[in-house]
Amino acid sequence: MVLRCLVWLFIIGCVSKVLCSCGAQSEPTAPQGAASCGCEKLKRAAAAVDGAEEQTASVLTDTAGKYSRVANERASQAQGDERELHSQMVQISGGEFLMGTDNPGIPADGEGPPRLVHVDSFYMDIQEVTNRQFQSFVHATAYVTEAEKFGDSFVFEGILSETVKSQITQAVAAAPWWLPVKGANWRHPEGLDSNITDRLDHPVLHVSWADAVAYCSWTNKKLPTEAEWEYACRGGLKDRLYPWGNKLNPKGQHYANLWQGDFPNHNTGEDGYVKSSPVMSFPANGFGLYDMVGNAWEWTSDWWTVHHTTEQQDNPKGPPSGTDKVKKGGSYMCHKSYCYRYRCAARSQNSPDSSASNLGFRCVSREQR
Predict the structure, then answer these.
(1) Where does the UniProt annotation place the signal sequence (predicted)?
(2) What is the dihedral of CA 207, 255, 339, 360, to 10 degrees?
(3) In 148, 263, 320, 330, which residue has its Cα 20 to 30 A from 257's Cα atom?
(4) Please, where are the H alpha helices in the chain?
(5) Could you tell me the pTM of the whole model?
(6) Strands 359-360 and 297-303
(7) For 257-262, which contacts have Cβ atoms below 8 Å and span 24 or more sequence positions?
(8) For each of the chain's 369 residues, which pLDDT tens digit applies?
């Protein structure tokens, strides 16, 4: 079994998984002296088992196959109302686009160089997978998420109750707003004293990469490649920062669930939310996709690398192996002073077993579902 314990620099104790919502360094135009979120300090234990990457890949492949088989076996038995729980999809017509940027907000993340990429047509969920939809999957398959198996997950301190915070003795000194919370998982986003009763239409959170793969396989879909995700995020626009253009708040309107105020001390909630929002609460992009930036980070299928070819590529899938997976889109915690990653070209990373209170996903398919 892949060694789960990750060694943190500047952390008290050892926890079962790692999550970063912010990235490796501050956005370059941030005020001088602005701190990073400390995520670059996180390192996998040096004693990791040889061949761990291959073993992890094998386990994830088996997981995907298992739930794909479950989906096929149940297809003829599924009730109509259950089918309707699956996300509506929209066709994204294939084409060429410039992936990445020649003006990176965070160069260390490998946002550049820009490169010409072609992707074939595909279908994408118009929204992030919701708690209601994931609950349907769990009811049908008895699936148990990795956060539930590990017994904890990471939660932003600002949304925790005082009772929960009083029971926590560990924190990352470089990013003390991230706390490992016992009992935190998709059913209990802020620990055991929370639930999703009034958040069934919010994105499911605290899901690992393997959890996301299992759900997508159950619906006969898959996670998008980074290229597919970025092409979809751009919504047909060229050389623009956001899915809707270059202005963050056109005509004073909010187009995404992001952080307003002084991160991490105070979120004013000008956009109406201080944590996750119901899916489709903000305008869709030109392809009809909602929340492509903000709300929740979204897993992709690609392994992480910061080195990219400048040659034209067709349907790139990232490197064949690695230790971290690419996530895109930023979250409700993103603020320009700390996490300028709510841009289509922005990117970040996490180990496949990571989970946290701002990390979710959506699925794609080559065929309409």
Answers:
(1) 1-20
(2) 0
(3) 148
(4) 52-74, 80-83, 131-141, 146-150, 162-165, 209-218, 226-234
(5) 0.84
(6) parallel
(7) 257/281, 257/282, 257/291, 257/294, 257/295, 257/332, 258/293, 258/294, 258/330, 258/332, 258/334, 258/335, 258/342, 259/332, 259/333, 259/334, 259/335, 259/339, 260/335, 261/335
(8) 333 433 333 333 333 333 333 333 333 344 333 334 433 333 323 223 333 344 444 445 455 555 544 444 443 344 444 545 778 999 999 999 999 999 999 999 999 999 999 999 999 999 999 999 999 999 999 999 999 999 999 999 999 999 999 998 877 666 788 888 999 999 999 999 999 999 999 999 999 999 999 999 999 999 999 999 999 999 999 999 999 999 999 999 999 999 999 999 999 999 999 999 999 999 999 999 999 999 999 999 999 999 999 999 999 999 999 999 999 999 999 999 989 999 999 999 999 999 999 999 999 999 988
The identity of residue 268, as a single letter, is T
Length reported for the chain: 369
Tokens 């990176």 correspond to 104
Structure tokens at 357: 């209170």
